[in-house]
Write a structure and sequence with these properties.
The chain has ten helices and ten strands. It is an alpha/beta fold. The strands form two sheets. The chain has an eight-stranded parallel β-sheet with strand order 1-2-3-4-5-6-7-8. A two-stranded antiparallel sheet has the order 9-10. A hairpin with a 3-residue loop joins strand 9 and strand 10. It is globular. The chain starts with a strand and ends with a helix. The model has no long low-confidence stretch (mean pLDDT about 95).
Length: about 260
């Protein structure tokens, strides 16, 4: 069985080389390395060039939680200069749940302005967008549609079902993580999402719950856990589900 991890922060892993060896041994064939700031964009491109297995594909972007005003223009220039090496724009989007943004309309406006500029890049170069939408699901969808973006994935989707239905109706995708094994919002959303509009990921190196009291820190190999959680939730055949997920990822990212 071959797996594609459609959302990993490789630059955040403490021992990325070991994690990638383990991923290859576990059957991970491809990884989408998403970027959050200038440093991450540069590091992920380095990893893409230096690692043979698994194949690394890079998404270039600025995360709403990593906005450094003095770096924005330089980062956007860097993305534009290396756009041919990218399979997507991201991780970008909005997050209204950060404490510093929750009650600060100026900070929300700053996020929206930068998200809009990255959506415009995606439209200009006909690239898909990897969207972080926590607490801002409807705004993210509205802005993405208004920008004329053709392909978008709302990563680790755990938002309202009515927004989910509109995401699907717009032809966009959602993705899910190992949290699907235990998180009520994730489970409710993904139970309603058509598999043809779903992808699997790890969002590593996030920590996830394991059992009653334990937890584990994800690496790309743990995309297999996401698959198992999906199969258990939806009561579908594992190999058939994986084949659909892989086809979805290959078509979406053009890999």
């Amino acid at each position: 069985m071959l797996f594609i991890d459609t959302h990993a922060h490789l630059d955040h892993l403490e021992n990325v080389e070991q994690a990638l060896v383990q991923a290859a041994e576990a059957g991970v064939s491809d990884i989408i390395a998403v970027s959050v700031d200038l440093k991450a964009n540069k590091r992920n491109l380095e990893l893409k060039k230096s690692i043979q297995r698994p194949r690394i594909h890079v998404a270039l972007g600025i995360h709403p939680g990593n906005i450094v005003p003095d770096e924005v223009e330089e980062t956007l220039r860097f993305i534009r200069e290396h756009i041919k090496e990218a399979v997507a724009i991201g991780e970008t989007g909005l997050d209204y749940w950060y404490k510093w943004a929750k009650k600060d309309e100026a900070k929300k406006a700053e996020q929206r302005q930068l998200f809009r500029r990255q959506l415009e890049l995606a439209r200009e170069f006909d690239l898909p967008v990897v969207i972080h939408s926590r607490g801002a699901w409807r705004d993210c969808l509205t802005m993405t549609r208004d920008a004329g973006v053709k392909k978008a994935v709302f990563h680790w989707y755990s938002g309202p079902v009515d927004v989910l239905n509109d995401i699907v109706a717009s032809g966009y995708m959602v993705s899910t993580t190992p949290s699907l094994a235990y998180s009520p919002p994730s489970r409710e959303a993904i139970s309603q999402a058509p598999i043809e509009h779903t992808m699997i990921e790890t969002d590593c190196p996030v920590y996830y719950q394991e059992g009653e009291d334990g937890r584990f820190q994800a690496t790309p190999k743990d995309v297999a856990r996401t698959l198992k959680a999906y199969v258990a939730l939806k009561n579908v055949d594992e190999s058939k589900a994986l084949a659909v997920f892989n086809e979805n990822a290959r078509r979406f990212f053009g890999i």
